[in-house]
Design brief:
- By secondary structure, the protein is of the alpha+beta class.
- It has six helices and six strands.
- The longest helix has 16 residues.
Length: 154
């Protein structure tokens, strides 16, 4: 079994993956990693506490995007939806943002760029990096994509 699949069996991180995600989120938030590696902070929909997730950001056509490699049921996706898209991105600095979910028919180009940027995500998206657009469009409904919009006045 692929180690990435083992870490996220059933679409949820196991205990070791949660620990590694916490460490990774702290590193990304400090800004000591490449600028496309960010920490998403969002209010937990059940606990109300700030939850942090390390994510890979894609820039395409001058717009920034976040992709859920674990699909619709990823914890951060549920939290972002419950928060109405309000979140904070950290990478050396704090940026208040609104995450706008893309319609399924607009996800394929972002998913293609994401597959190139985030090699570990290939295990979860189940299409190769150089897959034809039709294959990417076929899996697009299962993987939410959010456009990052700076919150005005923040």
């Amino acid at each position: 079994m692929n180690v990435q699949r083992w870490f996220y069996r059933g679409g949820r991180p196991n205990r070791l993956a949660r620990l590694l995600d916490r460490v990774t989120a702290a590193v990304y938030a400090r800004g000591v990693s490449p600028d496309y590696l960010v920490t998403l902070q969002v209010r937990g929909r059940r606990s109300g506490r700030t939850i942090r997730f390390p994510l890979v950001m894609v820039v395409l056509g001058g717009e920034r995007y976040l992709v859920s490699m674990l699909g619709q049921d990823a914890n951060w996706v549920g939290n972002v939806r419950a928060a109405g898209g309000d979140a904070v991105l950290r990478h050396g600095r704090r940026e208040e943002v609104r995450l706008e979910e893309l319609a399924v028919d607009r996800r394929a180009p972002v998913l293609e760029a994401y597959l190139k940027r985030a090699p570990n995500a290939r295990t979860h998206l189940t299409v190769p990096q150089d897959a034809p657009r039709a294959d990417v469009e076929r899996v697009a409904p299962r993987f939410p994509v959010f456009r990052v919009v700076p919150r005005s006045g923040a």
